[in-house]
Amino acid sequence: MAEKFNRASLLQGAVSPLAGGNVSVPLKDPALTVAASSMGNLATRLQAFSNQQFKVAGARAKALGTLYGAKNAPTYEQLKKAEELGKPVDATDMPGDATSMNIFNQAAYAASMSRLENSTEIAGRRALTNVMAEAATDPDLSPQEFTAKLDTVITEYTDVLAHISHSSAGKVNAKLGMVANA
């Protein structure tokens, strides 16, 4: 006959299931951690290299744009002739574009405006010098007439520039006004 099995000992824990011991499954693979760290370092280095190259390219574009704008800027005399022919020059006729996101175009526009401001100021200073020389030789010229002639010269030179840039016209107006008041 069969032996009777003591159920109570099973229920009370007299017999325990067979355990595998302290088996642990690693949640992080060390090889994958090293690979991920290496890829992160590589990405950081590539980003730094990319940023450096963009800086170099931006500086080069700015230098080339400045050179292009200075070389191709119209002079005051060219602006005056265009105005006399009924075709005044405006900002769209200038080299480059101040509103562009392109570094080359921004630098070209800034350089051309700087050169145009300088040529306009030089021409205006010459005209002011001529007015002052005429006033020195004309004893009948009243102070009001002299001031009016100076104001006319300043207005004439800044109005031509105002078609392109009001801020540039303001700069030249201020510089010529200081010369006239000196």
SSE blueprint:
Blueprint: H1 7-11, H2 30-72, H3 76-84, H4 103-137, H5 143-162, H6 166-181
Helix pairs in contact: 2-4, 4-5, 4-6, 5-6
Main sheet summary: none
What's the order of the H and E elements?
A: HHHHHH
Query: Could you tell me the mean pLDDT?
Result: 84
N- to C-terminal distance: 134 Å
Question: What is the helix content?
Answer: over 70%
> Total strand count, please?
0
Proportion of β residues? Answer: under 5%
Tally of helical segments: 6
The coarse silhouette is: rod-shaped
SSE-based structural type? mainly alpha
Rg, Cα atoms, Å: 41 Å
Low-confidence stretches are none
Task: Describe the protein in words.
By secondary structure, the chain is mostly helical. The chain has 6 helices and no strands. The model has no long low-confidence stretch (mean pLDDT 84).
Give a short summary of the structure:
By secondary structure, this protein is mainly α.
State the main characteristics.
mainly alpha, 182 residues, 6 helices
